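hey
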């Protein structure tokens, strides 16, 4: 698999003519978005103040929500061509440079049945995503995409609103082993927030989680993660010291909260970013080193899970 530095060279050397053309397009789209945004805001403000004396607080809130929602739709329409060109001319070549066997489908995402099957999060009421990547690396099946899972809420008047359950990268890969139960590894937010005593109590009495709390014999791993499993013996069999070290390293490498589960013959991983990862920003230059590195590192991290956790070496198989 290509290294981050090799991909960075590819980005700047092989894609440079494309980046220069896209950078010119980006500047034009940015100018158009700002111009239309200013006109849109002025018209909205004029309507708002001319009708202000007839408004109650609910209508004001409804108007503000409508202003933001309509603005978002207009923004997405204005950048749609640029966004599509960016994905086809930058993201697709980067993925194919890592491994040309991968299929990249910008408008699809990991199916919600796999998200639910992971048991990492509650079942969402609204589910979306994009940038699906599927393929094999070193003979290991790998699928990932951006995912946004939301929970629906209704107030006393029946009005709906949504809160985010998870937003970020969702990854599925072979683990070369069939699991009878389910083992879930979550960020340890209870102990880090409330301390050891209260945190341990909350973890042991987490009724939103099926399975029992599994205490691991790695203090460093216990400090970062909490484990629940339907089979204590199987959970400890899966989470060897080697694998715990690799998950810790992956967490440190990603720099974001990491969720892991083992179910069937798959490993599921969710990396929380709280943003759409492969979307171009029209307010930042494509030639900006930090922007380029974010795309490259995220792709390398996603596909690199196979090498990072040694999934290609079948270390976790009973017969491996």
């Amino acid at each position: 698999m290509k290294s981050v530095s090799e991909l960075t060279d590819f980005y700047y050397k092989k894609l440079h003519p494309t980046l220069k053309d896209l950078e010119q397009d980006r500047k034009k789209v940015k100018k158009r978005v700002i111009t239309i945004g200013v006109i849109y805001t002025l018209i909205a403000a004029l309507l708002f103040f001319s009708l202000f004396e007839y408004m109650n607080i609910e209508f004001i809130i409804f108007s503000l929500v409508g202003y933001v929602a309509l603005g978002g739709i207009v923004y997405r329409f204005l950048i749609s061509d640029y966004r599509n060109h960016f994905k086809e001319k930058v993201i697709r070549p980067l993925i194919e440079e890592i491994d040309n066997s991968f299929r990249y489908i910008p408008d699809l995402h990991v199916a919600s049945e796999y998200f639910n099957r992971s048991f990492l999060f509650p079942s969402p009421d609204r589910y979306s995503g994009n940038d699906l990547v599927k393929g094999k690396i070193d003979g290991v099946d790998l699928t990932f995409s951006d995912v946004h899972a939301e929970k629906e809420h209704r107030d006393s008047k029946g009005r709906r609103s949504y809160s985010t359950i998870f937003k970020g990268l969702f990854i599925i890969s072979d683990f070369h082993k069939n699991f009878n139960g389910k083992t879930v590894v979550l960020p340890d937010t209870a102990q880090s927030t409330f301390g050891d005593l209260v945190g341990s109590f909350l973890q042991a009495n987490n009724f939103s989680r099926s399975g029992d709390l599994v205490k691991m014999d790695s203090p460093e791993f216990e400090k970062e993660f909490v484990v629940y499993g339907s089979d204590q013996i199987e959970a400890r069999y899966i989470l060897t010291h080697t694998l715990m070290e690799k998950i810790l390293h992956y967490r440190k490498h990603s720099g974001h909260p990491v969720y892991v589960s083992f179910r069937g013959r798959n490993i599921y991983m969710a990396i929380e970013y709280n943003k759409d990862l492969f979307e171009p920003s029209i307010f930042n230059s494509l030639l900006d080193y930090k922007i380029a590195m974010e795309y490259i590192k995220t792709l390398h991290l996603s596909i690199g899970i196979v090498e990072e956790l040694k999934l290609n070496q079948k270390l976790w198989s009973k017969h491996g």
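The beta strands are 103-105, 126-137, 140-154, 160-174, 183-187, 212-214, 225-229, 258-263, 266-272. The chain has two domains: 1-98, 103-279.
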